[in-house]
Design a protein that fits this description.
Blueprint: E1 10-17, H1 34-43, H2 50-58, E2 63-70, E3 77-82, E4 86-89, E5 92-95, E6 99-100, H3 115-127, E7 132-134, H4 143-151, E8 160-165, E9 168-169, E10 174-175, H5 182-196, E11 201-206, H6 215-227, E12 231-237, H7 241-250, E13 253-259, H8 271-278, E14 281-285, H9 317-337, H10 341-350, E15 356-358, H11 365-372, H12 381-388, H13 400-403
Parallel strand pairs: 6-7, 7-8, 8-11, 11-12, 12-13, 13-14, 14-15
Antiparallel strand pairs: 1-2, 2-3, 4-5, 9-10
Bound molecules: NADP nicotinamide-adenine-dinucleotide phosphate.
Residues 100-103, 108, 134, 237-238, 257, 285-291, 294, 296, 342, 359-364, 367, 370-371 line the site of NADP nicotinamide-adenine-dinucleotide phosphate.
Length: 408
Amino acid sequence: MFCPSFYPHRETRTVAVSQRRRVSTTVPEPPVTTGRIHAVLDRVLDLAHADDARALLAGGRAGKIVLRVPEGSAFTEARERIDMIKHHLGPIEVGRIGLGAMGMSTAYSASERDDDESIRTIHRALDLGVTLLDTAEIYGPYVNEELVGRAIADRRDEVVLATKYGLVSHAGGGPGHVDSSPDNVRTAVEGSLRRLGTDHIDLLYQHRVDPRTPIEDTVGAAAELVKQGKVRYLGLSEAWLDTVRRAHAVHPIAAVQSEYSLWTRDQEAEMLPLLRELGVGLVAYSPLGRGFLTGVIRSYDDLADDDFRKTNPRFSRENFDRNLALADEVGVLAGEIGATPAQVALAWLLAQGDDIVPIPGTKKVSRLEENLAADTVELTPQHVQRLTNLAPPAGDHHEQSQMATIER
Ligand SMILES: NC(=O)c1ccc[n+]([C@@H]2O[C@H](COP(=O)([O-])OP(=O)(O)OC[C@H]3O[C@@H](n4cnc5c(N)ncnc54)[C@H](OP(=O)(O)O)[C@@H]3O)[C@@H](O)[C@H]2O)c1
């Protein structure tokens, strides 16, 4: 049995293994070769993720393995970190699949909450190359930011941390009230920083456009926070063309976050061309169609009574069966290429451009691993076309009152 206490003096060396993809390399001293890593892994079989690290090497995937190297030459611990292909949101480079944290605290069913498993999921995501983590003050409200803050406390520098303001009015309206007044932006960010346990937010989105506050005032206030170092980059969520242009004229917008998936395609005709003209990235939320495209949910009655998808028109009794045909088509293609439907749904999004970053949500390690493996699924142009041609779903993508908050 390997005994770390034999080695009182340790230091951490980062070893990059790059056989297929480009990764930055910190050459350790003394040099650690791939052969030596194999030898090390043979000795750390008892450690979590050693198998993944070996698969990483055997499969020729690029990645980083962080080795704790004792003085001398023996190794006591190995933790793998697999690098993912990178996509760009304006100036921000991120692993091309992110992680949405919303469902860990709220939506879709409160009865399924499991904070310990959620934190393991976030940690595993970081191990597997995710950098973009997505939360918002309205998720919970507040508790989702607290959960994310706890999870990243020791790993803050590995994360591109994104949160959102504007769906909680701190002037008395409370959660669910659209408010992007400059005062509310400032108050919201102070709260988010506190709950996330950080001194800066990497990507700060307006969650919904506030019809009562000119976007110039909102973005002006957020830009002040950038100047103060509390925020690095700005984003918008579910904003439409004119708002995006006006906001971008006040301060560069790095990303727009909107629903985008095989069954929600309204970003394609006008928004994507505009974002590309401006150099703004698109973060695709609900990329799995809120779970529907994975084929796991087979009937309206599969949903718990408190699952808010029961109010979503696409999940209604009336539309459910019609929409199953779409999920089944995704499943057929997945079967043909030896992937899962979730992976196919994500791979289709990844194929739309390196300025698009899906943020699938899950609170389970196993599903996270499944989803992130979409990074290695390569669809042919024929597959992409087949998926692009799928018939549109029945029903709006939000219920009526939510649709009213989405700018179009
Ligand atoms: N800007 C906005 O207005 C907005 C709106 C909605 C969402 N978002 C963001 O986008 C993120 C993702 O969206 P989302 O959670 O609504 O939808 P999603 O990612 O399309 O789907 C999430 C649902 O799919 C399930 N799931 C995940 N992976 C699965 C797999 N491999 N097989 C079967 N089921 C799977 C999850 O359940 P389990 O958790 O049980 O695995 C959850 O019920 C959110 O977390 C949030 O950060 C933003």
